[in-house]
Structures are given as structure tokens and as C-alpha cells.
Amino acid sequence: GDSMRQRIKFTNERVCKSHLLDSCPHNILSGTRMDLGECMKVHDLALRADYEIASKEHEYFFELDAAEHLQSFISDCDRRTELAKKRLAETQDEISAEVAAKAERVHELNEEIGKMLAKAEQLGGEGNVEEAQKVLENVEKSRALKKEAEEVYRNSMPASTFQQQKLRVCEVCSAYLGLHDNDRRLADHFGGKLHLGFIEIREKLEKLRKAVMEKQEKMRTRRPEEREQ
């Protein structure tokens, strides 16, 4: 509240620098299956506004703090993904690289279908019915390809092995995906807040990294006497 604002400035170490740069994972994943609860640091939109004004005049390098925060979060997530993949591999029979590639093809088409369905729903919700219709026509084409790919895959192994090869781990958000997931599940996953939240966090991390590099470069190329001011 107001009393808090009078007490601390946005430069205070208790203030979340990721929030000042609109990239705190606690905000982005709020309300998802991986809700992180409240951030331990202060989130205050008024402080963000103060920072945005002040940063036009002065370089604070908060991108560095935010990038480190997001990097540690994404590294945790990637570790979880690797662990989940390992666990999964232990429960599934070993399959040849050739068969694995056939399974991969089905998963790729699943992802394509899931993303398109989520897009069509979004367009429909915005009233772009014609656009949504076009996307759904493409979904039909991908469905036909998926049916073929599933046949090819199914015929490349014994039925018992086929039963086991159903799951994989999403590289973006570390959730499990089923090879035989129906359209609804695919759309819910690829258009869901969790998956999209992770895409957003990864994109913001990339942007922060770039900003840090550009600013460091700028500092390096400035004349020494300017740096001392």
C-alpha cells in the first residue's frame, strides 16, 4: 500500500526486479498447475511505473537480475523435464531409432493439431469465424497425416510394445503428453495457460539476455572518461 511505497524505492533489494520488467514467473504462472504462490519479493505496479520513468535517465542494469532469476527458474524446469524423461524411459521398452522417429512424427502432428485447435478457438472467440474456419481446414489435413503416421508407427512393432509407448514429456513445460491424446486434450495443452506461460517466460529470458549483452557492449564502447562520470 501507500505506506509501503513511502518506505521503499524500486532500487531496494526487497523489490522484485523481474516484476519491474514485467517478467516474474510468479505472475506468469499464477493460476496454473504450477502456480508458484506469491513471490517472496515486493511486487508493486507503482514502483514499476517509477522505474520506467527513472530508467529513461539512468541505467540500472536490472535486466541482469531478472535474467538470472528467470534462468534459474528455467534451469529447474529443464532438470525436471530430463528427470521425467529418464523415469519414462525406465518404464518403456527400448525401441530402435527408426521406430522412435516414427513415434516422433506422430507427436509432431499432435503438436501441430493442438496448436491449430487452440488458435482456431482463440480466433472464434474473437469473432474471426472465417479465419477460424481456415485453420480448422488445415487441422483436417493434419489429422489425415496423423492417421497415416499412426498406422506406420503401429505396424513397426509388436502390439505389447506399442501399448507402452504412449507418453512423452513436453520440452516446453515438462508436462506429460499422450501419443493418443484426443483433440480436446491437445488443444487444452498447447493452448493452455501453463504451456503458453512457459513459452512467455522463455521468450522474456531471451529478450533480457539480449538487453544485457547490448548494454554491456554499449558500456565497453563508451569512452573511458564518460564511464567515470
TrEMBL record:
**Keyword Protein transport carried by entry:** no
InterPro entries xref list: Luc7-rel
One GO MF term: mRNA binding
Q: What biological-process terms (Gene Ontology) are attached?
A: mRNA splice site recognition
- Pfam families on file: LUC7
Asked if Coiled coil is a keyword of the record, the answer is yes
Q: Which residues form a coiled coil?
A: 92-152
Q: Provide this UniProt record's keywords sorted from A to Z.
A: Coiled coil
**What GO CC terms are in its UniProt record?**
U1 snRNP
Cite the PANTHER family for this sequence.
RNA-BINDING PROTEIN LUC7-RELATED (PTHR12375)
Family the UniProt entry places it in: Belongs to the Luc7 family.
Entry protein name = Zgc:158803
User: Organism source for this protein?
Assistant: Tetraodon nigroviridis (Spotted green pufferfish)
